[in-house]
């Protein structure tokens, strides 16, 4: 029996989290769920969007499945998502992106993995106002941080039969920060001669990924470029309703969809839960439950391929909970 903290989140979070929980429970894996709250509503109850009880549950279980959480723009509390990544030092954000049979896309043959550094860069949140006429933010890149994300990317490539790692940066302009990132990734690459290594400047990489995504395999990026590139990549294959992710640290991992809380859809039972369900499958593999994960992924592929039993964003008419019902029925076949 695995112990997992389930954070429903807010917006569409509770609906997609319930769908994912039901699918995992039907997959054959035995999970003891510990439901823990986080998000805007907790501000009124506990005075913080990330209560200590939730942190304690994750500390105990070491694994969490998390629904999206709203972050106020410009003012208000800082992102719970960023706080969790920092608190548990979840330094690797892993986002696989591939074509799904039956899902319309402008591209074919996309099968890449974005490995984003998750704790440094402009996301470190070291920023302040200079009077009321300017603002300054520090882009923090360390050798240690760059080395562990590079190592993660190459180990991931080696363990998953991947052939090539591409480092993406802007070292021509940010010679110190991105220069340090690139030099460090290069040094790690030299220790993995069986894996091809290339690097590209981020603006050129955006154009090339859009033109020929099939040329890419594993991408490794500092935090901010990784954030942008992974949404761009999700858009290549049918949108963020289908994009899963893992946040991995040394002794802890949190799995979540790439998408946010989609407030317009909250409470309507129409959001696509596939991204969180595929994130849950990544979580099951992490827990050594590869068979249960495979059962979920096979059932997802066959529903998507059918193209009928899908949610509105894929042209279907199923609600969130009905999609989970259909998936559970498909796993039973
Ligand atoms: P979003 O991902 O919530 O929505 C972007 C678009 O995609 C919207 O049109 C939305 O309706 C659609 N969409 C998203 N998920 C969908 C799903 N599962 N099924 C169908 N359609 C879906 O991004 P946003 O609007 O920029 O952000 C909304 C809130 O979510 C913000 O407060 C943001 O900070 C937060 N957010 C949280 C996370 C997280 O918890 N990890 C990630 C991204 C954004």
Could you give the topology of this structure?
Layout: E1 2-7, H1 13-25, E2 31-35, H2 40-46, H3 52-61, E3 63-66, H4 80-87, E4 92-98, E5 111-117, E6 127-130, E7 134-137, H5 143-159, E8 164-169, H6 177-189, E9 196-201, H7 202-211, E10 218-221, H8 223-236, E11 244-248, E12 253-257, H9 274-286, H10 290-306, H11 320-331
Parallel strand pairs: 1-2, 1-3, 3-12, 5-10, 8-9, 8-10
Antiparallel strand pairs: 4-5, 4-11, 6-7, 11-12
Helix pairs in contact: 1-9, 1-11, 5-6, 7-8, 9-10, 10-11
Nicotinamide-adenine-dinucleotide binds at residues 12, 16, 68-71, 81, 240-241, 256, 259-262, 264-265, 271-272, 275, 313.
Task: Explain the overall architecture.
The protein has 333 residues and is of the alpha/beta class. 40% of the residues lie in helices and 19% in strands. Strands 2-1-3-12-11-4-5-10-8-9 form a ten-stranded mixed beta sheet, sandwiched between helices. A hairpin with a 3-residue loop joins strand 6 and strand 7 (134-137). The two termini are 25 Å apart.
């Amino acid at each position: 029996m695995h112990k997992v903290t389930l954070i429903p989140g807010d917006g569409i979070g509770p609906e997609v989290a319930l769908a994912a929980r039901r699918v995992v429970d039907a997959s054959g894996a035995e999970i003891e769920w510990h439901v823990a709250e986080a998000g805007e509503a907790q501000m009124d109850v506990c005075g913080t969007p990330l209560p200590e009880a939730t942190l304690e549950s994750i500390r105990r279980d070491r694994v969490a499945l998390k629904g999206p959480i709203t972050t106020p723009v410009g003012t208000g509390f800082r992102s719970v998502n960023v706080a969790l990544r920092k608190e548990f030092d979840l330094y690797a954000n892993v986002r696989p992106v591939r074509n799904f049979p039956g899902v319309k896309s402008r591209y074919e043959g996309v099968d890449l993995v974005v490995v984003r550094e998750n704790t440094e860069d402009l996301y470190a949140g070291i920023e302040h106002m200079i009077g009321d006429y300017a603002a300054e933010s520090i882009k923090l890149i360390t050798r240690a941080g760059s080395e562990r994300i590079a190592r993660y990317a190459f180990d991931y490539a080696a363990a998953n039969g991947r052939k090539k790692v591409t480092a993406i940066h802007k070292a021509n302009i940010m010679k110190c920060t991105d220069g340090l990132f690139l030099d460090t990734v290069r040094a790690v690459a030299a220790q993995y001669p069986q894996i091809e290594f290339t690097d590209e400047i981020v603006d050129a990489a955006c154009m090339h990924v859009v033109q020929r995504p099939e040329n890419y395999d594993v991408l490794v990026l500092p935090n901010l470029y990784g954030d942008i590139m992974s949404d761009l990549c999700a858009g290549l294959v049918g949108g963020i309703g289908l994009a899963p992710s893992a946040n991995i640290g040394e002794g802890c991992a949190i799995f979540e969809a790439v998408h946010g809380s989609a407030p317009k859809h909250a409470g309507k039972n129409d959001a696509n839960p596939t991204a969180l369900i595929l994130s849950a499958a990544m979580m099951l593999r992490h827990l050594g439950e590869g068979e249960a994960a495979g059962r979920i992924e096979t059932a997802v592929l066959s529903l998507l391929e059918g193209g009928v039993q899908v949610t509105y964003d894929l042209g279907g008419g199923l609600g969130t909970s009905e999609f989970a019902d259909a998936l559970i029925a498909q796993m039973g076949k």
